[in-house]
């Protein structure tokens, strides 16, 4: 299994960002083919500050896929493209670092 992780910094207007994220972006991600599950966590405490160069983590989205190939296929899908455009529209691309991680245990 592999997961795609999106780590968001604190937005200028957290309430507006969350509303846009949960009402428009998350439902689009739910439609991405090959997605096994999606977990979203709101950071409640940072134990070692400073990792994000003066901005603390705010939201973590983890998208799970069965394999690297399944994730690659998802990235090539129209649903993924639409979700990326939406993230840009709601201002999320300016806040996010994205990476993948192989689930080893």
TrEMBL record:
Residues 9-81 form the EthD domain. This is EthD family reductase. It comes from Actinophytocola glycyrrhizae.
């Amino acid at each position: 299994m592999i997961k795609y992780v999106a780590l968001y910094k604190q937005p200028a207007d957290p309430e507006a960002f969350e509303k846009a994220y949960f009402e428009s972006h998350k439902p689009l991600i739910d439609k991405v083919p090959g997605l096994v599950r999606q977990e979203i966590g709101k950071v409640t405490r940072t134990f070692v500050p400073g990792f994000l160069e003066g901005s603390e983590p705010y939201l973590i989205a983890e998208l799970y896929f069965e394999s690297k190939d399944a994730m690659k296929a998802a990235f090539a899908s129209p649903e993924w493209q639409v979700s990326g455009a939406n993230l840009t529209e709601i201002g999320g691309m300016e806040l996010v670092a994205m990476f993948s991680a192989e689930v080893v245990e």
